[in-house]
């Protein structure tokens, strides 16, 4: 039997935020066994804790959607770091995407993104994207759409109001057409600026088995690329945004995004949040 723990991440309130399963003692598990367990939990992500390759690091981890392994994800990083920290002020996780240092202070964990956003060349036209989201053209902000990769990839679209954000419903076949136009990017991240340093967002990734995600740390990190491309960041300095996600699906989440820029370039991205433990138990080891 394997020990597991369930946390709600990017919240300090049980039964809100984004649920996460943490499975300990995963050294002997095959990729197929991990995928079976992730599919059994059927949460947006499950993280498996293994012995680190470098004993100076806290743990080696692998992260799975219900359908596939992914190289990096934000809410598993935050939840796992807080679970493993004890009294430590720093946790270093070996993820497929690279080393992810996480600082711990005041019950909050903050990770530094392992990769900076890289703009991908393709983006859908307005009509197709509006149709994919079940919106009218006037619901889309005039700012250009952005397709950014940094481990995972996301298609970013700014909408004009909280009302526009709330009425998004994924529509086919326009959603599949949008994905194909955007180089098979599976996830759409819609957001609205609610103040000079505040954002509300929704993230949809049906191909990964996630109809909607209550909180997406990796998408929050790559949002820095979209904000930078659209002139929302200074040429140099540090800018912090406070984000809400999951409101429309009844699982409100709070995320903090901090972006360092120097000479009109992004130099570092950090995402912070809290987590609360809601369950623990044991699960059988699947057949190999």
TrEMBL record:
<feature type="active site">
    <location>
        <position position="45"/>
    </location>
</feature>
<comment type="similarity">
    <text>Belongs to the PhzF family.</text>
</comment>
<dbReference type="GO" id="GO:0016853">
    <property type="term" value="F:isomerase activity"/>
</dbReference>
<dbReference type="GO" id="GO:0005737">
    <property type="term" value="C:cytoplasm"/>
</dbReference>
<protein>
    <submittedName>
        <fullName>PhzF family phenazine biosynthesis protein</fullName>
    </submittedName>
</protein>
<dbReference type="Pfam" id="PF02567">
    <property type="entry name" value="PhzC-PhzF"/>
</dbReference>
<dbReference type="InterPro" id="IPR003719">
    <property type="entry name" value="Phenazine_PhzF-like"/>
</dbReference>
């Amino acid at each position: 039997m394997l020990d597991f723990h369930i946390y709600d991440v990017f919240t300090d309130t049980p039964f809100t935020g984004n649920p996460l399963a943490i499975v300990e003692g995963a050294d002997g598990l095959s990729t197929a066994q991990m995928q079976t367990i992730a599919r059994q939990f059927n949460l947006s992500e499950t993280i498996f804790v293994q012995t680190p390759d470098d004993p100076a690091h806290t743990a080696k981890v692998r992260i799975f959607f219900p359908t596939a392994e992914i190289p990096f994800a934000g809410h598993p990083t935050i939840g796992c770091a807080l679970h493993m920290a004890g009294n430590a002020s720093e946790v270093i996780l070996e993820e497929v995407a690279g080393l992810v240092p996480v600082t711990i202070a005041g019950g909050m964990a903050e990770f530094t993104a392992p990769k900076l956003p890289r703009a991908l060349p393709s983006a859908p036209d307005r009509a197709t994207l509006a149709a994919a989201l079940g919106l009218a053209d006037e619901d889309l902000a005039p700012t250009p759409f952005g397709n950014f990769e940094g481990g995972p990839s996301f298609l970013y679209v700014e909408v004009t109001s909280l009302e526009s954000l709330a009425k998004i419903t994924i529509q086919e076949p326009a959603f599949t057409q949008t994905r194909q136009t955007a180089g098979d990017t599976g996830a759409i991240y819609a957001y609205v600026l609610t103040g000079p340093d505040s954002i509300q967002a929704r993230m949809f990734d049906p191909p990964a088995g996630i109809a909607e995600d209550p909180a997406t740390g990796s998408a929050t990190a790559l949002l820095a690329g979209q904000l930078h491309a659209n002139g929302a960041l200074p040429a140099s300095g540090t800018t912090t945004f406070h984000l809400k996600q999951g409101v429309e699906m009844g699982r409100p989440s709070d995320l903090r995004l901090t972006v360092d820029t120097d000479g009109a370039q992004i130099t570092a991205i950090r995402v912070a949040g809290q987590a609360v433990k809601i369950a623990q138990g044991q699960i059988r080891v699947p057949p190999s």
